[in-house]
What does this fold into?
Amino acid sequence: MKIDYTKYADGLVPAVIQDFKTHKVLMLGFMNEEAVKKTMSEGKVTFYSRSKKRLWTKGEESGNHLLVKEILSDCDNDTLLIKAQPLGPTCHTGADTCWSERNHQEDFLYYLEDIIELRKKSSDEKSYVRQLFGKGINKMAQKVGEEAVELVIEAKDSNDDLFLDEAADLLFHYLILLNAKGHNLQSVVNVLKQRHSK
It folds into this structure.
C-alpha cells in the first residue's frame, strides 16, 4: 500500500475508522508514516495527535482500543479507510461513534442478535432469553422444533396474522440457537453465498 504523505503540508493523512462488522463510521483521525507503521505492526489503531504532538494509540487511557481488521488507501493514495473492531465506545464522550450514532447494523435482525447476546449475559432472572440459555442447548433446540411445527400448522390455515406471529417466533428462537452454538446469522449468510457462487 502506497500512501502519499506529501499531499498535505503537515505530512498527515486523514484516516476514516469504520466498524468492520456494522460498517458504521466511528471516527476520523490523522496519521503520519510512523503512526501507520505502528498501527500495522501492533494491530491497534494509532494516530498522530495534533494537540499532544505525539503518537496516540486509541484507547491507551480508556482501554477502548480499535483492533485493526483491514487498511485501505483511496484512489489518490492520500486518505485511509481503516476497518476495525472497537473494544467499547469510540468517542471520548462515551458515545459509540463521534457522531453520536448507535453502533449497530441497520438491519434489524443483526440488531436483534446483539440484544440476544446482551440478554444472555444479563443478570435479570426474569429475562426469557437468559432463562432459555439457562435451560441448555436441548431446550433451545426443542423450542425451535416446536415453533417450526406451529408455523407449519398455521401455514395450512388462512390467518395471516397467526402465520406471521409463528414465523417471528421461529426466527427469534432460531437466532437464539445459532448464538448458543457459537454462530450468528452472518455465518448462515456466508454458507448461502458460497452455495450461490457455485
